[in-house]
Amino acid sequence: MLEIKNYTKIYKGGKRAVDHLNLTIEDGDIYGFIGHNGAGKTTTIKAVAGILDFNEGEILINGKSIQTQPLECKQEMAYIPDNPDIYEYMTGIKYLNFIADIYGVGKKEREERIKKYGDLFEITQNLGDMISSYSHGMKQKLVLISALIHEPRLLILDEPFVGLDPKASLTLKNLMREMCREGCSIFFSTHVLEVAQKLCNKIAIIKNGKLVVCGDMDTVLGDSSLEDVFMEVSES
Residue limits of the ABC transporter domain (predicted)? Predict the structure, then answer.
């Protein structure tokens, strides 16, 4: 579903944020992406989402290039940033309909999905309110619903659990597992190592822009915890 081939990003001044990164996310994977602040996680995720250009390499989504076929790629994916920066002058329901219009979701399908996910995240009663009145957590829930409304094959998440209450976090984890059982793929960054260890079937650790560990969770961990592995590679 997602192939990152020799991805390299160099910022002005010569800072190499990501250096020849290679990763493959297959159908059904929940792939965790971890590293210290500044390691290159968000830079990589934004490149996959088509927000950042890059200097070398290729990123393919279901065999299509994010550089040469960006619209086709974005029709198959959804991206949720680490900060839900959305149109505060809209009501929640207008925002969801706006996103549904972009993806060409039919009236019946969007109504069913908005009801389903609105109820799951306990925000249905607030969808008529202005987004400017929402808390951070409510905005995060709204962005999650907007990402799911067109049933993406690939979900890209940057710190998705930040700002969510425990019940909403559990709802999101269950939805992630359900999506991947149906053949979708998820690539997400998190600082919550315990969540990554329990949720992901594969893991990648990035340090100073370079991939240092990746693979099946059980193989990577052995008899250790993810925290132990992360600390070992971080201090080496």
Answer: 2-233
Residue 87 CB coordination number (10 Å): 11
d(CA 179, CA 186): 8
**What's 132's DSSP letter?**
G
For residue 92 the two structure tokens come to: 């929640």
Per-residue pLDDT band for 162 (boundaries 50, 70, 90) equals confident
Cβ–Cβ under 8 Å, residues 161 and 102: no
Q: Is the pLDDT reported for residue 228 higher than 80?
A: yes
Q: Which residues are CB-contacts of 24 (< 8 A; sequence separation ≥ 6)? A: 2, 3, 4
* CB-neighbour burial class of residue 173 (10 A; exposed 0-12, middle 13-18, buried 19+): middle
H-assigned helices in the chain: 41-48, 70-76, 92-102, 107-120, 136-148, 166-181, 193-199, 217-221, 226-235
pLDDT at residue 153, as a whole number: 95
- Kindly report the number of other CB atoms within 10 A of residue 99's CB atom: 20
Residue 19, helix vs strand vs coil = strand
- Domains of the chain and any CATH numbers: 2-235 (3.40.50.300)
Distance (Å, whole) CA 195 – CA 32 = 10
Task: Take residue 38 and report the two structure tokens written for it.
Answer: 């500044």
| CA 112, chain centre distance (Å) | 23
Place of tokens 């209450």: 165
